[in-house]
């Protein structure tokens, strides 16, 4: 229940949740995840309206082949100003990798810090389900669940987690006493469950709900996908002007990998764009063309791995890569023009311009995309590389140093890349001693990182 003084916050969050639902309906899962996270940031305890729908979306995204979080996403935050920031970061990662036990544990930690008990109950039950169905159950996770359930006085669940922990470590006699203690607490507690049968039924209900969501998200068979497209065609006949239906049909039809149908879909999207002048159709067209080209590149690479390089498949791969480069540049240029506040599009366009050595055009885009916290370090790294490739080595040094100040981990891949790029900028700026010192430290951290050992030897000989 939302208190009166929190109504505005809840209303603001619901606006994001509603928009996320709309975006998810046309399978734009990544953007929908971001919208749900923004809503949860405003209303962290929105379990029914925020966390649960986001969980379902995460499973659908996973079934659709959504990628797990990359390095820049995993390490975009390593320290947090408050529990809400920690919670949303953890849940963002969990949404991109919905069976990752570590990310779920991060949510538990943040929920306990923030006192978000309803969230803690939800995520603890969900993680218990995930762990319970694993062949090898992680003991430390089960003990964390025991502590989490105990902290909100859910003693039966705590005892259940403890029993599973006992199965994982049957020789741990202390767990027997812990289980007895938890059962005693449950006995004297006026709790939610009156009997063991009631508790078992509740656990079964929780399991059933999660299983239904898992089944809902599994990859659909080809016959089902064809039927789904046919149903969308029929619905479009009923409401031919529905943008949501048009976009959903276009995406699902393009995924059938029928060349003739693919061309028809592209033509329809073009016609709808001419009819409405709404860029949403052009964006959808760009997305399916890029997806199609990436699939063809994967197939061609697989052919090369299987049958070896030939003049034909090598030329084919080169042609596809060139087409993809042009398609992405055109797509992200249009997205930036039509969605000027979306930092992701600025960053992606900057990367494509940088690949084409158009550094002067890429620099302003990275300068804007760095204002978004999740893109800050990556944008600074790309910005530094633009200055480096222009020969502005002193400016590149300043940018890489700024990125390192804001990046809090000293051992991850991003740290190593930033340090390596800083050393290169120093080396090209003829600040050899400083470059040597950084390369040397990198070699101590990871001797096999890129060509760092070669650079250490080269500069050592030069400085002696």
Automatic annotation (TrEMBL):
Keywords: Repeat, TPR repeat, Transferase
Highest taxon listed in the record's lineage: Bacteria
Extent of the TPR repeats: 377-410
Organism the protein comes from: Sedimentisphaera salicampi
This protein's name: Putative O-linked N-acetylglucosamine transferase, SPINDLY family
Gene3D superfamilies: Tetratricopeptide repeat domain
UniProt GO MF annotations: transferase activity
């Amino acid at each position: 229940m939302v208190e009166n003084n929190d109504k505005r916050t809840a209303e603001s969050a619901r606006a994001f949740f509603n928009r996320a639902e709309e975006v998810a309906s046309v399978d734009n899962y990544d953007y929908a995840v971001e919208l749900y996270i923004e809503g949860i940031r405003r209303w962290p305890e929105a379990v029914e309206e925020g966390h649960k729908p986001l969980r379902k979306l995460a499973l659908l995204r996973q079934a659709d082949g959504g990628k797990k979080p990359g390095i820049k996403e995993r390490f975009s935050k390593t320290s947090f100003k408050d529990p809400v920031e920690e919670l949303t970061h953890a849940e963002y990662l969990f949404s991109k990798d919905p069976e990752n036990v570590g990310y779920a544990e991060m949510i538990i930690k943040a929920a306990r810090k923030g006192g978000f008990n309803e969230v803690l109950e939800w995520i603890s039950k969900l993680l218990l389900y995930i762990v319970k169905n694993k062949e090898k159950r992680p003991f430390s996770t089960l003990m964390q669940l025991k502590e989490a359930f105990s902290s909100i006085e859910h003693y039966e669940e705590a005892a259940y987690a403890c029993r599973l922990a006992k199965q994982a470590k049957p020789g741990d006699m202390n767990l027997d006493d812990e289980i007895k203690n938890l059962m005693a607490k449950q006995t004297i507690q006026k709790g939610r469950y009156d009997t063991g049968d009631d508790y078992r039924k509740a656990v079964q209900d929780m399991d059933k709900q999660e299983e239904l969501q898992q089944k809902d998200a599994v990859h659909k068979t080809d016959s089902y996908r064809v039927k789904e497209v046919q149903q969308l065609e029929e619905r479009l006949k009923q409401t031919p002007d529905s943008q949501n239906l048009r976009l959903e049909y276009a995406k699902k039809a393009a995924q059938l990998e029928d060349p003739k149908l693919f061309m028809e879909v592209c033509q329809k999207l073009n016609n709808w764009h001419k009819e409405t002048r709404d860029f949403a159709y052009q964006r959808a067209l760009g997305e399916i063309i890029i997806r199609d080209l990436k699939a063809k590149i994967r197939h061609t690479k697989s052919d090369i791995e299987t049958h070896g390089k030939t003049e034909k498949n090598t030329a084919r791969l080169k042609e596809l890569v060139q087409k993809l480069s042009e398609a992405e540049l055109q797509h992200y240029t249009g997205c930036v023009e039509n969605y000027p506040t979306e930092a992701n599009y600025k960053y992606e366009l900057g990367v494509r311009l940088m690949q084409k050595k158009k550094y002067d055009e890429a620099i302003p885009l990275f300068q804007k995309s760095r204002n978004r916290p999740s893109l800050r370090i990556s944008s600074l790294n790309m910005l530094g590389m633009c200055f480096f490739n222009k020969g502005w080595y002193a400016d590149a040094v300043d940018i890489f140093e700024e990125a390192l100040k804001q990046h809090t981990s000293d051992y991850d891949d991003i740290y190593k890349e930033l340090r390596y790029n800083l050393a290169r900028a120093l080396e090209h700026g003829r600040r050899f001693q400083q470059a040597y010192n950084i390369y040397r430290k990198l070699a101590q951290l990871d001797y096999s990182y890129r060509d760092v050992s070669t650079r250490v030897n080269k500069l050592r000989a030069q400085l002696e």
